[in-house]
Amino acid sequence: MDNFLSDAKLKALLQPEMISQLRYQYQTAKPFPHIVLDGLFNKFDLGDVVDSFPSLNSHWWRYDNVLEKKLAKNNISEMSASIRHFVNELMENRFVHFLEKLTGIEGLITDHTLNGGGLPQILRGGKLDIHADYNYHPITQLDRRLNVLVYLNENWNPEWGGNLELWNKDMTVCAKSIETFFNRVVIFSTNDDSFHGHPDPLECPETESRKSIALYYYTNGRPESERSAPHSTLFKRRPCDPVVPEYEDLRKQRAVRRVKDDSL
């Protein structure tokens, strides 16, 4: 199988003027460093990934509480050959090198366990409240630095919702709302203030779902200004969200739980 990201396109992206422009766009983006790239991968090969997405009858991790209602799968041995090939390509040196040049974060390390990542899927009524991700890998103790989200939603109707929301660190403003269309890639830096999520229940038909592939990248150490004690996912309440005791209790429990206990 050919590369999902062709050598010619990758070479063009890495041309000094182009990668300099992309890095500036990434590093100056608000509310935290991020970039949205459309059409990065071969659409026909990525279509094969969609076609071989695991059925709902296969084994999924199921999260169903006031903070999140979603499905997830991170066992790569249970995925199709097409998905395995795509995931492995996103962990190859050529793609990691591109990420380093794009973001300015050197020494990125991949996670072949796909801890907390892999294949997220959200059905009708599902959601993922605004949050900042866990900051240390529970096994390697490496610092989590970067998220790469590849969306697989063909023929998606914007009225169904499912936008990825990026919020400022004070949780007063949704600074950006990103539609999650097919072959759209969102790359962003992760720290204690990179609040994001899909907080409104999905309104797609029962026959549809919000599909994506999520990979996370790490470094051995991070800037001192970004360091904090190990933590799991930090969920936040939006100004428009009602104060619900069940929500507040669960959010506080999750905030104090150490990352080694986190299964997300």
Q: If you had to describe this structure to a student in words, what would you say it looks like?
A:
The chain has 264 residues and is α+β, with helices and mostly antiparallel strands. Helices cover 23% and strands 25% of the residues. It has helices at residues 7-13, 16-28, 43-51, 81-90, 93-103, 245-256; strands at 34-38, 61-64, 68-73, 119-122, 127-132, 143-151, 164-167, 174-178, 184-189, 195-198, 210-219, 234-235. Strands 1, 2, 3, 4, 5, 6, 7, 8, 9, 10, 11 and 12 form a 12-stranded antiparallel beta sheet that branches. A hairpin with a 6-residue loop joins strand 7 (164-167) and strand 8. The longest helix is centred in the N-terminal third of the chain and has 13 residues, at 16-28. The two termini are 31 Å apart.
Features:
twelve-stranded antiparallel sheet; globular
Mean pLDDT: 93
What is the SS-derived class? Answer: alpha+beta
Q: Could you tell me how far the N terminus lies from the C terminus, measured between alpha carbons in angstroms? A: 31 Å
Strand percentage lies at: 15-25%
Bin the helical content: 10-25%
